[in-house]
Design goal:
With about 450 residues, this protein is mainly α. The protein contains 18 helices and no strands. The chain has helices spanning about 5-20, 30, 45-65, 70-100, 110-115, 120-125, 125-135, 150-160, 165-195, 200-235, 245-270, 280-310, 315-325, 330-350, 350-355, 355-385, 400-420, 435. The longest helix is centred in the middle third of the chain and has 33 residues, at about 200-235. The relative contact order is 0.18.
Length: about 450
C-alpha cells in the first residue's frame, strides 16, 4: 500500500471515529433534566441500616449458644463479600482518576458513594472485633495459642505472634478504616461534590488536578490495606496456612463483584427513570469488558495460587486445599472452576452479550452468586476444620448464612443510600462530563 493510500485510510478512520464519537449522547444541561437524584429512595437508608442491625440481633438470638460459633463464620463470610464490592468501588475510582479517564465520569458517582460509605462498614465489623478481643479461639485460633493441642502447630503460630495478636489486629482494623474514610469519603466523594458546586472552569480544573495527583499514592496504600484486610479477615482463619497471592486473589474477586453490582445498580436506577439517557449501552459495554477481563484474571490468579502450592507441596500450604478437594467440597471446587471461570468466560467474550442489557444483567447476577460462593468456599471450610465436623453430609449451608447475608446486605446498602442522600448521582459539574456523555465504543 502506497503512503498516499495509507494517509487516506488513516484520515477516513479518524473521520469515522469522530463521527461515531458524536453520534449520540446528551449535553450536560440535558443531564440535569435526566433525573440525576435518588430523591425519596435515599430516605430508606437509615431504615435499611436499622433493619440490618435488627436482623443481626434476631439471627444471633435464634442460633442459641451452641450455634454462635457457626453464626460468626457466616458473619465473616458475608462481611468480606460486601466489603469486597465497596473496596472494588474504591479502587475503580482511584484508577480512573490516575488514568484521567473521561468515559467513566457519568457513572463515577455511584462508586464514589460506595467508596464514601466504606468507612461505615467498620461499624458492621465490630462483632468480629468482639470475638478477637474476648480471646475466643472458636473463630480465630491465634488469639490464644496456648489452648491448641498440636504442639508443632503451636510453634508455627508463635513465630507469627508479632503480627497475629489481638492488640495489633485492633490497631490494623482502625488504621484501614480510618484510611478508607480519609480516601473514600474525603478525597474522592467530598472532592467530587465540591467540584459540582464550583462555578469557575479554572477552579474546577485545579480541584480535579489535585484529586488526580493524590489518587496515585492513595491507590498504592489502598492496595496494601486491602491485602492486610484480606489476610486479617480470611487467611488468618487458618493461622498455619499462608499464600503470598491471597491479596491479589481477593482483589480479583472484589473487582468482579463490583462490576457485577454496577451493572445491576444502573439497571435498577434506569428502571426507576433515573439516568435513562445519560448512561448508554456504551457504558454497559465497558462494564461487560471489565467484567470479562477480571473473570479471566481471577482464573489466572486462582490457578497460579493452586499450582504454586501444589508444586511446592509444603504441608502448611497444602492443608488449605486438602479440605476443599475432598468429600463435601469437591462439587463446589468444580463449580468454582466451571461456573466462576469457564462459563462466564465463554458467555462474556461476545460483543453482543456485552451490549445486550438483559443478558449482561443475567451474567452479572450469576457472577454475584458465584462471588458469594467463592467467599463461602474460602471461609466455611475453616469452621469444619476448627470444630472437627465430620464430612460426608454435603455442603454445610446453614440458615445463618442467609440471615447474615440479609443483615449485612441491608446495612451495607443503607450506608450507601445514607451517603448518597440528596446529592446528584452523577457528577454534573465535572469538567469531563461532556466527553463522558458522548462516549462511544468504536468498532473498527
Amino acid at each position: 500500500m502506497s503512503s498516499r493510500m495509507r494517509q487516506l485510510r488513516q484520515k477516513q478512520t479518524e473521520a469515522t471515529r469522530s463521527t461515531m464519537a458524536h453520534s449520540h449522547g446528551i449535553t450536560p444541561e440535558q443531564l440535569k433534566q435526566d433525573n440525576p437524584y435518588l430523591g425519596d429512595l435515599a430516605r430508606i437508608g437509615p431504615l435499611a441500616m436499622a433493619a440490618g442491625v435488627v436482623l443481626f440481633v434476631i439471627g444471633f438470638a435464634m442460633t442459641g449458644a451452641d450455634q454462635h460459633q457457626r453464626f460468626y463464620f457466616s458473619y465473616i463470610h458475608n462481611y468480606v463479600f460486601f466489603m469486597s464490592i465497596s473496596i472494588g468501588a474504591l479502587l475503580f475510582t482511584l484508577v480512573n482518576h490516575v488514568a484521567r479517564a473521561s468515559w467513566s465520569v457519568v457513572i463515577r458517582r455511584i462508586p464514589e458513594f460506595f467508596a464514601g460509605s466504606l468507612w461505615m462498614m467498620g461499624i458492621a465489623g465490630l462483632p468480629i472485633l468482639y470475638v478477637v478481643l474476648t480471646g475466643s479461639v472458636e473463630v480465630y485460633q491465634w488469639v490464644d495459642v496456648a489452648k491448641w493441642i498440636d504442639a508443632p502447630e503451636q510453634s508455627l503460630i508463635y513465630n507469627k505472634a508479632a503480627y497475629l495478636n489481638a492488640n495489633f489486629f485492633v490497631i490494623r482494623y482502625f488504621v484501614y478504616f480510618a484510611f478508607f474514610w480519609l480516601v473514600g469519603r474525603g478525597l474522592l466523594l467530598n472532592s467530587s461534590l465540591k467540584i459540582d458546586k464550583l462555578e469557575s472552569i479554572e477552579d474546577k480544573d485545579k480541584a480535579l488536578l489535585k484529586v488526580w495527583q493524590l489518587s496515585a499514592p492513595g491507590l498504592v496504600f489502598s492496595f496494601l490495606l486491602m491485602t492486610v484486610f484480606a489476610i486479617d479477615m480470611i487467611m488468618s482463619l487458618d493461622p498455619v496456612w499462608f499464600s503470598t497471592m491471597f491479596g491479589i486473589y481477593y482483589f480479583a474477586g472484589a473487582v468482579i463483584g463490583f462490576f457485577s453490582m454496577m451493572i445491576l445498580i444502573f439497571k435498577w436506577l434506569q428502571s426507576t427513570g433515573r439516568l435513562k439517557e445519560a448512561v448508554t449501552v456504551e457504558h454497559y459495554h465497558d462494564f461487560g469488558k471489565f467484567l470479562f477481563a477480571f473473570v479471566f484474571f481471577w482464573g489466572y490468579i486462582a490457578f497460579s495460587q493452586y499450582m504454586l502450592i501444589w508444586y511446592a507441596s509444603i504441608p502448611e500450604e497444602t492443608r488449605w486445599f486438602h479440605i476443599r478437594q475432598n468429600a463435601d467440597w469437591t462439587p463446589l471446587s468444580w463449580l468454582m472452576l466451571i461456573g466462576h471461570f469457564a462459563l462466564p468466560f465463554a458467555f462474556l467474550i461476545s460483543r453482543y452479550i456485552k451490549r445486550h442489557n438483559i443478558l449482561l444483567a443475567c451474567g452479572a447476577v450469576w457472577m454475584l452468586v458465584l462471588h458469594w460462593l467463592d467467599h463461602f468456599y474460602q471461609v466455611i471450610p475453616e469452621y469444619q476444620r476448627v470444630t472437627g465436623t465430620p464430612v460426608g453430609g454435603g455442603l454445610p449451608f446453614a440458615i445463618t448464612d442467609i440471615i447474615c447475608l440479609l443483615a449485612i446486605g441491608a446495612f451495607w446498602f443503607g450506608a450507601f443510600l445514607v451517603t448518597a442522600g440528596k446529592n446528584p448521582i452523577a457528577p454534573i459539574g465535572d469538567p469531563q462530563i461532556a466527553k463522558s456523555l458522548k462516549f462511544d465504543n468504536v468498532k473498527v
